[in-house]
């Protein structure tokens, strides 16, 4: 294990630094394999048939359905295996980390990672283009179900649901690039390719290091080993979703460098970001029983993303609840002390976390299996009609210094 980490650290140290110019270069790059697949599916008019057949393809190792377009069959066969470099011991540590912190991770994903995505105006516009008109929980349902699939013990074995989900999400991203890159629907010269490599890595940072930051802010005790493993799992996911390994951060230190530069380049207010955040808050207020505790949802978002981003996203203020949620770290500290001292408490809290996550996910999915279908058209306004020890407690890497800031 230590030698594997040393190898990754050496590779990360040898990687080139992230600069404005290097991130600019990533703006023009998509995902060659998935883009070529989607291009041919649309050119041959086979997208509808592909989506219909994919509803029957939900588990790894399952025979591909008859009638599947040849280009789709080639893509699914080429992406059916995880990367050859995966450290399975590290992936198991990531799974145990998730089990130990599942409720906290779900909270961080919902109230920190997703709002952070919404605070990137270009990303918010993309998400708005693909949001389901039927019910606004689709994006959170897809994200939650994808994460649960990833953290199953058999996630990469025959019979699991994770690999087919990753294959479909990759094609979903390619289909968005296909639609928005045509005509005058997207300013490629100014904004870059839709869901470009920079934004894909940026999204990976939201779901990895930004989640770890939120857990730290909540007062969750994370070991260095657990934080490294959780980030590593999302690095594997990034590779499976078409991110170029040569540009992907190799460790948490480089993740911080990329994340800070990415956010300083792109974060800001937008109508789409505010609307998506309002949908997110409304969704979770429906999940919370009654109305008395409804203000805790925006208060938690505000606590985790900070005042500036919360104001950009027009998150409502509540003096009482905004103050109350600041006690969350103290409460979690008490629970984790009980967990450290009692095996029974550990078991009970893990089971409570499991059932809470299952309840949340079932509320979001409404009992459906999310299909991640290729959209044949986007929304009308876009004009498209076709358990670790806690002795070595993890702390976030320091914020990247601003080279333009005066000394002292």
Could you explain how this protein is built, in words?
The protein is an all-alpha fold. The chain has one domain (20-30, 88-158, 173-376). The protein has 21 helices and no strands. α6 packs across α14 (224-240) and α7 crosses α13. It is globular, with a radius of gyration of 21 Å. The two termini are 41 Å apart. Residues 344-349, 351-370 and 381-391 have low confidence and may be disordered.
Summarize the structure.
With 408 residues, this protein is mostly helical. The chain contains 21 helices and no strands.
Write the layout of secondary structure elements.
Layout: H1 2-14, H2 20-26, H3 32-43, H4 47-54, H5 70-78, H6 88-100, H7 102-118, H8 121-130, H9 138-150, H10 162-180, H11 188-191, H12 197-207, H13 209-218, H14 224-240, H15 252-266, H16 271-287, H17 296-305, H18 307-312, H19 319-324, H20 328-341, H21 343-365
Helix pairs in contact: 3-10, 6-14, 7-13, 7-16, 7-17, 7-21, 8-16, 9-21, 12-14, 12-15, 20-21
């Amino acid at each position: 294990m230590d030698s594997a980490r040393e190898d990754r650290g050496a590779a990360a140290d040898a990687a080139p630094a992230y600069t404005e110019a290097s991130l600019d270069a990533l703006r023009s790059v998509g995902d060659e394999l998935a883009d070529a697949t989607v291009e041919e599916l649309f050119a041959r008019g086979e997208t509808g048939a592909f989506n219909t057949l994919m509803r029957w393809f939900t588990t790894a190792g399952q025979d591909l359905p008859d009638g599947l377009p040849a280009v789709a069959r080639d893509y699914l066969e080429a992406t059916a295996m995880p990367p050859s470099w995966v450290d399975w011991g590290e992936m198991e540590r990531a799974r145990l980390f998730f089990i130990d912190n599942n409720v906290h991770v779900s909270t961080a994903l919902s109230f920190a990672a997703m709002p952070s995505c919404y605070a990137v105006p270009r990303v918010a516009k993309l998400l708005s283009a693909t949001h389901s008109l039927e019910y606004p929980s689709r994006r959170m349902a897809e994200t939650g179900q994808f994460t649960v699939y990833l953290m199953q013990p058999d996630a990469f074995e025959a019979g699991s649901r994770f690999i087919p989900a990753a294959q479909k999400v990759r094609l979903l991203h390619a289909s968005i690039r296909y639609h928005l890159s045509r005509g005058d629907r997207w300013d490629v010269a100014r904004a870059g390719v839709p869901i470009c490599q920079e934004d894909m890595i940026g999204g990976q940072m939201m779901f990895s290091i930004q989640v770890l930051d939120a857990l730290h802010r909540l007062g969750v005790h994370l070991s260095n080993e657990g934080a490294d493993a959780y980030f590593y799992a999302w690095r594997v996911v990034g590779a499976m979703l078409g991110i170029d390994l040569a540009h992907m951060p190799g460790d948490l230190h480089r993740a911080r460098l990329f994340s800070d530069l990415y956010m300083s380049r792109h974060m800001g207010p937008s109508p789409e970001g505010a609307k998506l955040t309002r949908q997110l808050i409304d969704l979770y207020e429906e999940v919370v029983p009654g109305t008395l505790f409804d203000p805790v949802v925006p208060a938690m978002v505000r606590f985790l993303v900070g005042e500036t981003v919360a104001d950009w996203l027009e998150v409502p203020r509540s003096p009482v609840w905004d103050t109350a949620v600041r006690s969350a770290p103290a409460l979690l500290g008490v629970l984790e002390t009980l967990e450290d001292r009692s095996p029974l408490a550990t078991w009970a809290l893990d089971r409570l976390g499991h059932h809470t996550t299952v309840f949340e996910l079932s509320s979001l999915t409404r009992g459906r299996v999310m299909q991640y279908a290729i959209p044949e058209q986007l929304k009308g306004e876009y004009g498209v009609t076709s358990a670790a020890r806690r002795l070595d407690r993890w702390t976030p890497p320091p914020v990247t210094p601003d080279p333009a800031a005066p000394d002292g």
